[in-house]
Design a protein that fits this description.
By secondary structure, the chain is an alpha/beta fold. The chain has a domain of 168 residues. It is 51% helix and 8% strand. It is built from 27 helices and 14 strands. Strands 1-2-3-4-12-11 form a six-stranded mixed beta sheet. Strands 7, 8, 9 and 10 form a four-stranded parallel beta sheet that branches. Strands 5-6 form a two-stranded antiparallel ribbon. Strand 5 and strand 6 form a beta hairpin. Helix 2 runs parallel beside helix 6, helix 5 crosses helix 6 and helix 26 packs antiparallel against helix 27.
């Protein structure tokens, strides 16, 4: 147990705001500790802290390769890990424990269960640079209310009840029981640690807090939460357990999840606003997760409620890395949207972000789902949506490298000879895209068939509709719906390349196909190469304002989306998006020089955004219109990443302008908007010495992160993007 007990004099002011200020400073200390520790870098914060130096876990292998797989392997190791997991107590915090490690990391790269090979797909993965997602886990959206309504004891009873109804499914039920029993063991050890802390702590208010923490922790071992404080702690417990299992999970509609507890406590007169804000802030401190606020019901009514405002205020108290999404629609509370933008300006930490509810729900309805279901779908990661507790999807895990596909198509055309043209090249590009998408879809179907023998979703199963009732893992048929996300990447790289070839070769005839191709093979070497590279990079560009590159981007987005949705069948639906995440660097490294003037190995464009730096006139409208025009239209986003000048003061006028912009682009079909407000000088200084800026938060993509926890390569990507936008 990390020693944070009895650090404060007994007469120190210790109201809720003072405690949160202390907790925030300690979080900055934790961030310093994590800097340089590879597992915690280049990703979401998740409230993680370093494990104690003496903590060591010896896994229980169940395979000849020394790793573990399937129900037995994962459940026995998880039970053992939770039985040994370090306990963490901070008397200033409302809740005990923090996330420290993950079973997926402990496997040490053992890979997919070797008893189930997919060698037939590997040549396609290699040729097209596919991020295939086989064996992956990330950002699946469970329904918290299932666990909150039952508690751990109730979940055990539910397992026992359905075990009787599903004979022959003992492997499933045994595994789920082991998982819960491991969590309960961890909580019992937590109670013992709090007892120890109570003997040491001297501050009277912190002693009272520890006493309540102990009562709630002991209660929650078996029982469902009753109060808001208990509900927040149960969410913390589940989140930490889920992160420890496989880093999986997302937060869902937090205001609706917590609203019944808030209303009940208020009706009973046992909870004040400031106290509620503190508990929610402690929840966000524990794991900022991916939470949503607001949105609309099936009738279009706004879901914003008083607790929606409290959650925003709680995030403000914490003022740290946070992944709250505000859902924008025509009937939303205008004051809530304005308040959200105010916080974005005030803290300049990249939160909240904004989703376009109308476009997202209408897109999902195009897949055949009802409006009632469509409005329930919420953000569960940087760029993906899911129905809480009802849907299984490989969000964040599957991507096609469309820039690599372009390269394969160009090589094909030039090697075939004959008459060269952009139209012929596009036909080849489309053919290869469909081959790559088909191979990606076959990989997903392989995953669905075999993942249970590799890594079952024990935690997600507990808060989903179907798995426990059927005795089936959510991957193997337990879910209600299977909507598998496939993200395209490099849309600007490809569209700009087509537009440059069309302009410089076909329209202006300043270059030939043979010369351009030779220079691409040589990575634009020599004076002539650099001259041609500059000429190509100065051609029509995506995001330039109704350009030819915009037209190419719209064409390839439609055709890519058509190829993805054509995979539908056998109860599985496929949903296209445009998003690269941190794979921007990795995907670019597999692509040679491209006709947009990009050098070999450089990153492809970020998500759905244009390549940065090609125009300096601050043409926000042109960029936004371009991205709105390439939305796939099936319920997953192509996000807008926006970098704003912090010199834009947080005046009512500035807040009003940004609010109007958000509404306008959502009306135009925008699905997700990520905004950074950061000074170019600050980011340069932080890049020089990240350790001096442990509290600097940037919105990397769909997630926020502490800048000092990014690798040098990733910091450079963020820095370059911000500098070229400033």
């Amino acid at each position: 147990m990390r020693e944070r007990i009895n650090q404060l004099p007994p007469d120190a002011p210790m109201g809720y705001r003072e405690r949160m200020a202390i907790l925030r400073e300690r979080k900055i200390e934790d961030t310093r500790d994590k800097a340089g520790y590879r597992p915690f870098m280049d990703g979401d914060d998740y409230g993680a802290i370093m494990p104690p130096e003496d903590f060591h876990f010896e896994p229980i292998p169940n395979h000849a390769n020394g790793s573990w797989y399937g129900y037995e392997g994962w459940s026995r190791n998880f039970h053992k890990l939770m039985t040994q997991h370090p306990v963490f107590i901070d008397p200033c915090d409302a809740f005990p424990n923090r996330w420290m490690t993950c079973m997926s990391w402990l496997k040490q790269g053992a890979g997919f269960n070797p008893d189930y090979p997919y060698d037939d797909l590997k040549p396609f993965h290699a040729r097209y640079g596919i991020v295939h997602g086989i064996g992956a886990d990330a950002h699946f959206g469970g329904d918290y209310t299932i666990g909150l309504n039952l508690g751990w004891g109730g979940l055990l009873l539910k397992l026992a009840e359905h075990r009787i109804k599903n004979p022959g499914k003992d492997a499933f039920y045994d595994a789920e029981e082991r998982a819960i029993l491991g969590i309960q063991n961890w909580l019992r050890r937590t109670v013992a640690a709090i007892d120890e802390a109570l003997t040491v702590e001297t501050h009277p208010m912190l002693l009272d807090n520890l006493a309540q923490m102990r009562r709630d922790t002991a209660f929650l071992i078996e029982h469902a939460p009753v109060t808001l404080r208990q509900a927040c702690q149960w969410l913390c417990i589940f989140n930490m357990a889920s992160r420890t299992y496989n880093r999986d999970g997302a937060g869902g509609q937090l205001d609706e999840v917590l609203r019944p507890y808030w209303e009940r406590d208020r009706a009973q007169g046992i909870l004040e606003e400031e106290e509620a804000i503190f508990y929610i802030a402690c929840l966000l401190l524990n794991d900022a997760h991916y939470y949503q606020l607001g949105g609309m019901d099936a009738e279009g009514n706004d879901l914003v409620s008083p607790i929606s405002y409290l959650i925003l205020e709680a995030a403000s108290w914490l003022n740290a890395s946070c992944n709250i999404t505000v859902r924008v629609h025509d009937n939303m509370d205008p004051d809530f949207l304005t308040k959200s933008v105010e916080y974005l300006f005030r803290h300049q930490n990249g939160w909240p972000r904004f989703s376009g509810d109308q476009a997202l729900s209408e897109g999902f309805m195009r897949k055949g789902f009802s409006r009632e279901l469509a409005v329930q779908r919420v953000a569960v990661g940087c760029n993906w949506m899911s129905l809480p507790g009802l849907e299984y999807t490989l969000n964040d895990c599957v991507k096609t490298n469309n820039a690599r596909i372009f390269q394969v198509a160009l090589d094909d055309m030039m090697q075939q000879g004959g008459v060269f043209s952009t139209e012929r090249l596009y036909r080849l590009f489309d053919q290869h895209t469909r081959i790559a998408v088909d191979a990606t879809g076959r990989g997903i179907r392989f995953h669905l068939k075999h993942q249970v023998f590799n890594e079952p979703e024990l935690m997600l199963n507990l808060i989903s509709v179907g798995p426990v009732e059927k005795g089936l893992d959510i991957v193997e048929g337990g879910a209600m719906y299977y909507n598998m996300g496939i993200d395209g990447t490099g849309i600007a790289t490809v569209a700009d390349s087509f537009a440059a070839l069309e302009q410089r070769i076909e329209q202006e005839k300043r270059l030939t196909w043979e010369e351009v191709y030779a220079l691409l093979q040589a990575d634009f070497a020599g004076p002539r190469g650099e001259y041609v590279r500059r000429m190509l990079s100065a051609s029509n560009r995506y995001g330039g304002g109704d350009t030819r590159a915009d037209w190419w981007a719209q064409r390839l987005s439609k055709d890519f989306s058509d190829a993805v949705v054509a995979l539908d069948g056998d109860g599985v639906k496929f949903i296209p998006g445009w998003f690269s995440w941190s794979n921007t660097i990795q995907l670019g490294s597999a692509v040679g020089a491209t006709p947009n003037g990009r050098h070999a190995g450089e990153p492809i464009n970020h998500g759905a955004n244009p390549h940065p730096g090609f125009r300096r006139d601050g043409a926000l409208t042109a960029m936004s219109n371009a991205i709105c025009a390439i939305q796939p239209g099936y319920g997953n986003p192509a996000p807008i990443q926006l970098e704003l000048d912090p010199g834009m003061a947080a005046t009512p006028e500035a807040i009003g302008k940004l609010t109007a912009y958000i509404r306008t682009i959502c009306d135009l079909g925008a699905t997700l908007l990520n905004i950074n407000i950061i000074n170019a000088d600050d980011i340069l200084k932080a890049n020089e010495n990240p350790a001096l800026y442990p509290d600097l938060v940037v919105r990397v993509t769909g997630f926020t992160a502490y800048f000092c926890l990014l690798t040098p390569e990733f910091r450079k990507l963020v820095v370059d993007r911000i500098l070229t936008a400033s």
